[in-house]
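Ligand-bound model needed. nicotinamide-adenine-dinucleotide.
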Amino acid sequence: MKIAIIGTGYVGLVTGVCLANLGNSVICYDIDKSKIKQLQAGKIPIYESGMKKLLKKLNASKNIVFTNNPEKTIKGSEIIFIAVGTPQQKNGVVDLSFVKNAARTIGKFSNSYTVIVNKSTVPVGTAILVKKIISCYNKNFDIVSNPEFLKEGSAIEDFANPERIIIGAESRKARKIINKLYRSFNCPVLNTSLETAEMIKYASNAFLATKISFINEIANVCEKVNADVETVARGMGLDSRIGSSFLKAGIGYGGSCFPKDIKALHNIALSNNYRFKLLKAVIQVNNDQKRSLVKKTKSILKNLNNKKICLWGLAFKPNTDDFRESAAIDLIKLFQKENVTINAYDPKINYEEFVNKNNFKNKINFYSDKYDALKNCDILLIVTEWNEFKKADLEKIKILLKKPIVIDGRNIYEDNKMKKLGFRYLSVGR
Ligand code: NAD
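Prediction:
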């Protein structure tokens, strides 16, 4: 099939690459010219495992092209995916300006029957809004809502082997075309209305965030009653009604999806005169959880003024270079308020971009070697659970820090082992 992708970010690029790999002819469009230039030169603007290899193979087969020409993208495409960002505005309401602009571009240039598929995470009612915008230009199209559930870090694997595919549609013709597109996928396909499809995505993310905040609350009680949250989570997860995933205590969820989607759902409910009390608590618990690392640091160092702290991990989770809403950003800001010097290391983050996109009060010292970052620091904080931190040389950490103090926001080390090695070691819920 001839497929166009509007927005070549994490979701758009993975969607384009995976659909091209299935033998479709894909054209990816983005308004960001530098991103397209990089992709045309065979460079990948994001870090995502397996992407480099797959793109090299596809470039050779010419199944995928990258462009910033909207007309070339849209004219003649049978299916057009919208995969642009839907960030939150300051008041927590979803910013739909990128989606609306994408709809206008599609309307202006489409010249034959097309199925417009929305992959972006959007408030209920957005598919109808997109339909209205495009209808101002042309009426020969149908709209489908097909939310995406991939996870950064395993995005290609997730897209290629989804646990379910949700297809929300009004028209039988469009539903048939999208079902055909996905016919080789071996998973349940749920055909729904547009609104239900849009809601499934928010409900899924909200439920996962609720599990995280729940286990974090349990962790906080565990700390008070001398129980071990890791074993508690294992014991809970063995119950098939509960399941073991998303029961990892830590410093809370971050990233480009959960924080904004949970707030968006809370706001959607509110604007429909419903107070989603549970979600309000989920958000509150998550905010408090990030601050708990600062509290623990204070409990050990007492006065933070002029102290030097080493942060390992800036990405919101391992195996990605995405730092949107990562816990590290909040932590650095909180520590800088207390006049703390920050040394930081992350294996994949673009440090320049990290600084440019966040409004930090003071300079951060960035390192390309995790051990160099430790030198002369009063404490090490584990913020992201990268594998290389799990395998780090603990004796070396001990020698390089001023005193052997580690505060672990992700529970990556064994409590007993750290204490035996002579560390002052604080983790979450143990
Ligand atoms: P992103 O910011 O990485 O990419 C969005 C891209 O769209 C950018 O490259 C931007 O330049 C481009 N863009 C914006 N307006 C455009 C326009 N009018 N025309 C063409 N391109 C335009 O965002 P993302 O992480 O890929 O997320 C996209 C959507 O998918 C969001 O709604 C997000 O919530 C949802 N989602 C994301 C993930 C994830 O893990 N990142 C997972 C599932 C769903």
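The chain has three domains: 2-192, 201-287, 291-426.
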